[in-house]
Amino acid sequence: MPYAITSDKWVKHHSEQEKKRIEKENIIKKRKLETTLKKTSAETKNNSKKLINGVRENQVKEKQNDVEATKIQDVDDENKKLARQEQNKKLKLAVKEGESEKFIDGVRENKVVKKEIDVETKRPDKTSSKTFNIGDFMVISYQKKRYPGLIKNIDQGAQEYEISVMEKIKPNFWRWPKNVDQIWYKRKFVLEKISEPISSKGSIYNLNI
User: Which domains does the chain show, CATH number per domain?
Assistant: First the structure.
């Protein structure tokens, strides 16, 4: 009689058990691998989110800083614009009331007193040997700051130029103001001629002056 362990039935049973054991081990290994992959994927995704959030926070901070700088510049430009408008009102009122040409010239001289204080005596006069025309784009000096503008009228006798100037919105970026900022400047404050500016974004002009 054959032994139980050598019988075909026992061998078949043993083979089936061994096969089930191996399959079970493979399933366990597969689950462990899937768990490890999920954990790694979750950590990678979390790190990516942190990196993206960090970049966004920096972008938001930079944007806020730009906005604050623009607000401060706008307030400064608005104050200068109001001062110029007040000077123009005085000049128009003098003309309307029919005052003498001498008094009008006096108002005009008063209008440029602050500009004369700000003249940079050490800088050579670039306009001494140049002729400017209506429609030329210029750089003018006002309160020790440079502004781009367009010549609208010229008084050759008085050597004065009526110029419409732009307002600064942030460093190197300019636009035409909603309320026209146009007054007369003596020749010494008309620094130099520049090329016609080209708009970079709609009504925004990129000028490094």
Answer: 112-206 (2.30.30)
